[in-house]
Amino acid sequence: MVRPEFAYVAENLLLRGGYRKTHFQADQTTLQSVSQMGEVYNKPIEALLISNYKTFVPYIVWDKELESLPETFYFREFILQSLIRQHLSISKNLQIFLDSAGLNDFQAEDFEVLGEKALSEGYVDILIKDRMPVGYTRKIILEIKTGSAKSKDIEQLENYIKEIGEECIAGVLIAQKFSRNLKQECEKRGIKPFIYTFDQIERSRKYTLEDLKQKLQLLKI
Q1: Are 112 and 8 in contact (CB under 8 A)?
Q2: Which of 87, 95, 117, 215 is 20 to 30 A away from residue 129, measured at CA?
Q3: Smallest Cα–Cα separation from 175: which of 197, 149, 156, 200?
Q4: CATH number, domain at 68?
């Protein structure tokens, strides 16, 4: 048996077959429940002193030949997912996104943006859900592709929507570009197509995550 306030974390761990990520993600309900447990730590805190260390800022490149781990990373899907999640975690950006998706009656402050969510059909790239659900949890799922959208991406997203059921109020496919036929297919199946853009990217340049966060735009087509 799992306590309801920990269901999100428990389900993720179960469907992943265990803990296999370098980060641990909890939703707002879990965090609030945990914050009410135990006692406040009031003992002296010892500072961890580390000397003789070096730091660096990782860069993102669009030319694979310029990749040099761990300082320079080739632009991949997990980087785009992280950028979009951080972008939508800003209330103003999330509200613009909701309005563009035709969800004008929804307020950004009522939702939280979470990273990869495990389902039996696979992993939802980004899950937007009610911050404080009451019985029924509204969910918006995002499937993200760095390249051109394909028919199989729509099918994958449809499978996620079916698994989540009536709580899923929208499915969004974000890709670099859509063909005319694929855009029509999205509209026919009720999938909302978006493109991402960083405006002008120079393949010979290196970009920090902050650079890309400032340049990122999500556009409904």
Answers
A1: no
A2: 215
A3: 149
A4: 3.40.1350.10
